[in-house]
Design goal:
- The complex is a heterodimer of chains A (434) and B (156).
- With 434 residues, chain A is α/β, with parallel strands linked by helices.
- Chain A has 20 helices and eleven strands.
- Chain A is 42% helix and 12% strand.
- Chain A has a five-stranded mixed beta sheet, with helices on both faces. A four-stranded parallel beta sheet of chain A has the order 3-2-1-4, sandwiched between helices. Chain A has a two-stranded antiparallel sheet with strand order 7-10.
- Chain B is built from seven helices and four strands.
- Chain B has a four-stranded mixed beta sheet with strand order 2-1-3-4, with helices on one face.
- In chain B, strand 3 and strand 4 (138-140) form a beta hairpin.
- The longest helix of chain B is centred in the N-terminal third of the chain and has 13 residues, at 6-18.
- Chain B starts with 5 loop residues before the first helix and ends with a helix.
- The chains are: A alpha/beta (434), B alpha+beta (156).
- Chains A and B meet through strand 3, strand 5, strand 11 and helix 15 of A and helix 2 and helix 5 of B.
- The structure holds flavin mononucleotide (FMN), iron/sulfur cluster (SF4) and FE2/S2 (inorganic) cluster (FES).
- The site of flavin mononucleotide (FMN) has 22 residues of chain A, from strand 4 and helix 18.
- The site of FE2/S2 (inorganic) cluster (FES) has 12 residues of chain B, from helix 5.
Chain lengths: 434, 156
């Protein structure tokens, strides 16, 4: 498979974040092309043809999502770039915004043109303050050259972009919670439907996409949807950024075509498992994705279909690699603690369930677990799954029960073998005198 | 009220003016105030409520949802060590223990001189460069005990 660099093409250039470098390397030409040669409908068609699917987690078709925005609505429409990046294991949006902020901005402008929005937001996690400043600087550079603001490139199209900081809450990466947060409220998820494309920010039609999804749009418009699609697989077009962490020799953010073999990425790109150890497991799409065994990794390719066939998901593209010495029970404990901490508390299965799972795991890891605690934990996770108000609850369950199915021995190792069995001779019950 | 400098208030009014709905400015405004005062006391929240045509409770109940806002003073350097999975796999626990020993405090505590507050946080987006921490807004990657000592020494 050809390793074309689309998103990371500028990453190694000095001062890649400046508009000078961006313009010198084809920057803002897609915007010019769209504004002068294409209708908004044609932009959406091109994105549909590219088979671009969301890089934020759910992998929904980007072109489809844009086409759901009602064209004739009398309300304003908004575009939101999701830069909350809080899924454990994920650090690729950070690299993208640091190295190539203008690609994100150009993608936002193209989305805004496609759905007729005149105000866009970049919702960025507060911890990325230096990137908030970098993006704001880049927006000013773009404004000075006529790419942002009123009458962009003389086309009559206008668009403003506001960079908005989150303040430390994982749930605000979920699109509807994000909108609540952007409205200045607590980040409680909303009920869907209605979907944001129809009722989003301030009750208005809103397109929300991950920043990497948006940064993929300029090359699609410039070189065509067909070109982008053939880089990947039929149903998962293009390339994407994979954040690899854990026990590999060279962790990092790698751009690879969709459909690339996971094993090969670990061995070639990442230099294999560090210290010459053997692979034990991989969490493939951020902490929300069910864990894979080493055997499953052998058959896995990096695309939505392959991961779905393995009953996991490609999610945010974070690949967490674990070597043979890893204690999966400890890993699951950390992830469960995370979900308990980040549960917004709105619904009972998630709020109480994550706490109970964490307590069971804590007891187990302290060596005080009872043999049936593992089954209890398993049942608990199964019961949380599918019963919660938003997908965070499902994610918490997914971190637990597949891990028990696949690595039960790691959990059983903590269960105290019963030292003395409860008295075997049951005394004959004495008949009560009536 | 006079808690907030004229300069910060100017910045705040600029932020508010940008949004189509005033309340949307709440989080960014709170960041400016926290930057100014180091934390968010009741009086500051009352002032923010006035600027945004909200009640004190609107503001206070929103603030409490977000971990980056502090309702009490914290140390001059807020050390936030990641405890999530990628960092755990790369030895974050040893780093946390080292920091606790060096500073003589546990996570969640502040040194007596008010210089350091130590916190454990969830993933900060540095997973490929684990173990990682932030001190205030600055990232530190590939931590080892020696590197932590170096970093602590380098702080003004
Ligand atoms: C609990 C939770 C957290 C999420 N966090 C993020 C995030 O940090 N960044 C992101 O882009 N999407 C996140 N998502 C996915 C968004 O809800 C949404 O699907 C995405 O922003 C859509 O953009 P895309 O189609 O380009 O992927 C999260 C979803 C859930 C349920
Ligand atoms: S599943 Fe969890 S995070 Fe989602 S609404 Fe329920 S309590 Fe909140
Ligand atoms: S897990 Fe530590 S930075 Fe992501």
């Amino acid at each position: 498979m050809e390793k074309v660099r689309v998103l990371s093409a500028r990453f190694d250039l000095p001062d890649s974040h400046t508009i000078e470098v961006y313009l010198r390397t084809g920057g803002y030409q897609a915007l010019r092309k769209a504004l002068t040669e294409m209708t908004p409908e044609a932009v959406i068609e091109e994105v549909k043809r590219s088979a671009l699917r969301g890089r934020g987690g759910a992998g929904f078709s980007t072109g489809m999502k844009w086409s759901f925005v009602p064209r004739e609505a009398d309300k304003p429409k908004y575009v939101i770039a999701n830069a909350d990046e809080s899924e454990p294991g994920t650090c690729k949006d950070r690299v993208l915004m640091e190295k190539d902020p203008h690609a994100v901005i150009e993608g936002i402008l193209l989305a805004a043109y496609a759905v007729d929005a005149h105000l866009a937001f970049i919702y960025i996690r507060g911890e990325y303050w230096y990137l908030k400043e970098r993006l704001e600087r880049a927006i000013e550079e773009a404004r000075e050259r006529g790419f942002v603001g009123a009458n962009i490139l003389g086309s009559g199209f206008a668009c403003e972009i506001i960079v908005h900081p989150g303040a430390g809450a994982y749930i605000c990466g979920e699109e509807t919670a994000l909108m609540e947060s952007l409205e200045g409220k607590r980040g409680y998820p909303r009920i869907k439907p209605p979907f944001p494309a129809v009722v989003g920010l301030y009750g208005c039609p809103t397109v929300i996409n991950n920043v990497e999804t948006l940064a993929s749009v300029p090359p699609i418009i410039l070189r065509g949807g067909d070109w982008f699609r053939q880089l990947g697989t039929e149903k998962s077009g293009g390339t994407r950024l994979f954040a690899v962490s854990g026990h590999v020799a060279r962790p990092g953010v790698y751009e690879l075509p969709m459909g690339y073999p996971m094993k090969r990425m670990i061995e070639e790109e990442c230099g294999g498992i560090r210290g010459g150890k053997r692979l034990k497991a991989v969490i493939p799409g951020g902490s929300s994705a069910p864990i894979l065994t080493a055997e499953e990794v052998e058959q896995c390719t990096l695309d939505f279909e392959s991961l779905a066939a393995l009953k996991s998901m490609l999610g945010s593209g974070a690949i967490i690699v674990m070597d043979e010495d890893t204690d999966i029970a400890q890993v699951v404990y950390r992830i469960t603690k995370f979900y308990e901490h980040e549960s917004c508390g709105w619904c009972v299965p998630c709020r109480e369930g994550t706490r109970w799972m964490r307590k069971l795991l804590e007891r187990l890891l302290r060596g005080e677990g009872r043999p049936r605690d593992i089954d209890l934990l398993y049942e608990l996770a199964r019961n949380i799954f599918g019963t919660t108000h938003c997908p965070l609850g499902d994610a918490a369950a997914w971190a637990v029960y597949p891990a028990i199915e696949k690595f039960r021995a790691d959990f059983e190792a903590y269960v105290r073998a019963p030292v003395v069995s409860v008295s075997a001779e049951v005394s004959t019950p004495r008949r009560l005198a009536v | 009220m006079g808690m907030i400098s004229a300069e910060a208030e100017k910045k705040i009014q600029e932020i508010i003016a940008r949004y189509p709905v005033k309340r949307s400015a709440l989080l960014p405004v709170l960041f400016v105030v926290q930057q100014e005062l180091g934390y968010l006391p009741d009086e500051a929240l009352e002032e923010v409520a006035r600027w945004l045509d909200l009640t004190f409770l609107d503001v206070a109940t929103t603030v409490s949802f977000y971990t980056m806002f502090h309702r009490r003073p914290i140390g001059r350097y807020h050390i936030q060590i990641c405890r999530n999975v990628s960092c755990y796999l790369c030895g974050s626990e040893a780093i946390r223990e080292h920091l606790e020993r060096r500073l003589g405090i546990r996570c969640g505590e502040t040194t007596a001189d008010g210089r350091f507050t130590l916190s454990e946080v969830e993933c900060i987006g540095a997973c490929s460069w684990a173990p990682a921490m932030q001190i205030n807004f600055t990232f530190y990657h590939h931590l080892t005990p020696e590197r932590v000592d170096e970093i602590l020494r380098s702080l003004p």
